[in-house]
Write a structure and sequence with these properties.
There is one protein chain. The protein is of the alpha/beta class. 31% of the residues lie in helices and 28% in strands. It folds into two domains: 205 residues, FAD/NAD(P)-binding domain, CATH 3.50.50.60; 150 residues, D-Amino Acid Oxidase, Chain A, domain 2, CATH 3.30.9.60. The protein has nine helices and 18 strands. The chain has a nine-stranded mixed sheet with strand order 3-5-4-12-13-14-11-16-15. Helix 2 runs parallel beside helix 7 and helix 5 packs antiparallel against helix 6.
């Protein structure tokens, strides 16, 4: 298929990947509508892509070469045990064939790869979309203007305007717990001993009753950084309101939240890791609620969803970035094979709809096992941990997403 006009709502990771894929596949005009006017918000957070997914996405062109990444090999699960080393007692190790990325560096690499033919407009706030007959979509912008396109792709994240038009009943479902995120200069660890420095390719998961924390290195603009993601129930004193999770965008720490986090680290973490995470600057620490979004469909009419707009998967699955890039790859493949928009969207739904729902289901199982219904970690050995892990996976071969169907 050649020609056609496409609006991509959202210019983050998914939006850049989709715009690049559509332009290279033969779209006549591609316009990215990004709501922010300056730099996209970058808190320096880390993310991981499975080595097999990275190879697949590199071959398709969805993951550009040359973006800084840190190789990871193993995941070590530890519990606090005051009779053992300050770094905690290791209960289990498993292979972890991933590379970690810095969000900002990954986005920058994807943004630079967007072809010059794509119009990337910042400060373009989309307030709504509506199909116009059978052959187009009207996009409403803040200020009242309306633009018309042959196809609109929603790559606008967890509060997607495009998803609201395509699947109005699909709303975020709060998981009942929160995620604390932070990152720090890895050089700060030098004075703490050598636990983290001795195995930079190892991911450490600290386990405690009612939660867990994943810690790993990522590349940074000014050198390696230590990235951590801590899952736990929210404070019970009303600092985080209950209700619609979309009313809680990721936010920085108040003094009260900082105190809650410090107490949690002191009470539950092996001393080394508690001290390490406490080195994080408050400006590099924030908290967000965890929730799921599952859609009954990802494409219909002239509307299509990609990335978090199509499905929001809890981070336990380590699949968000790979899934967004796979969505872009599927769109490009479908564009080249299809003779009409109807055929394109039908094929995309068949390819990506079930994939997103499977990821949501797996991440829910992981969340229940690692936060909501944690086992008696301290009493488990390697065999028990391996069986517990297999129980979470179900029929999935592992985390990080699956290979795309040929």
């Amino acid at each position: 298929m050649r020609g056609g006009t496409i609006a991509v709502v959202g210019g983050s990771i998914a939006g850049c990947a989709v715009a690049t894929a559509a332009a290279r596949a033969g779209a006549g005009e591609v316009v990215v509508l990004e709501r922010t006017r300056g730099r996209l918000q970058d808190r320096g957070v880390g993310l991981c892509i499975h080595d097999e997914r990275a190879a697949e996405l590199g071959a398709s062109g969805a993951l550009p070469a040359g973006i800084a990444a840190h190789r990871l090999e193993r995941r070590r699960w530890v519990v606090r045990d005051d009779a053992h080393a300050a770094g905690g007692r290791v209960t289990w190790e498993q292979p972890f064939p991933f590379h970690s990325y810095h969000w900002g560096l990954l986005w920058h690499g994807l943004r630079e790869s967007v072809p010059g033919s794509v119009v990337y407009r910042q400060g373009a706030v989309v307030t709504g979309v509506a199909e116009s007959g059978a052959t187009g979509v009207e996009v409403r912008l803040a200020g009242g203007s309306v633009e018309r396109y042959d196809l609109v792709v929603g790559a606008d994240g967890y509060r997607s305007v495009v998803r609201a038009a395509l699947c109005p009943d699909s709303r975020p479902q709060y998981a009942g717990y929160v995620c604390w995120r932070g990152n720090l200069d890895a050089a700060l660890l030098t004075g703490l001993g050598g636990v983290a420095d001795s195995a930079p390719e190892t991911v450490t998961t600290v386990c405690f009753p009612g939660g867990s924390c994943v810690i790993y290195r990522i590349p940074g603009p000014d050198g390696p950084r230590l990235n951590w993601v801590l899952y736990a129930p929210p404070p019970q004193d009303g600092q985080l309101r209950q209700g619609d999770p979309t009313s809680f965008p990721p936010g920085g720490l108040t003094p009260e939240l900082a105190g809650h986090l410090a107490a949690l680290l002191d009470r539950e973490f092996p001393p080394y890791w508690g001290r390490a995470l406490a080195l994080t600057d408050p400006a590099d620490t924030f908290v967000q609620p965890i929730y799921d979004v599952e859609t009954a469909r990802t494409a219909a009419g002239r509307l299509l969803l990609a990335g978090d707009a199509a499905s929001v998967v809890r981070p336990h699955n380590t699949s968000g970035a790979a899934k967004a890039l796979q969505d872009a790859t599927a769109l490009a493949d479908g564009w080249r094979r299809s003779g009409s928009f109807e055929e394109l969207l039908r094929g995309y739904e068949e390819t990506r709809g079930a994939a997103g729902r499977e990821l949501v289901a797996l991440a829910r199982r992981l969340g229940r096992a690692q936060v909501e219904r944690t086992p008696a970690w301290a009493g488990m050995d390697g065999g028990a941990m391996a069986a517990w892990w297999r129980g979470q996976l179900g029929e999935a071969p592992g985390i990080g997403g699956r290979a795309m169907a040929p």
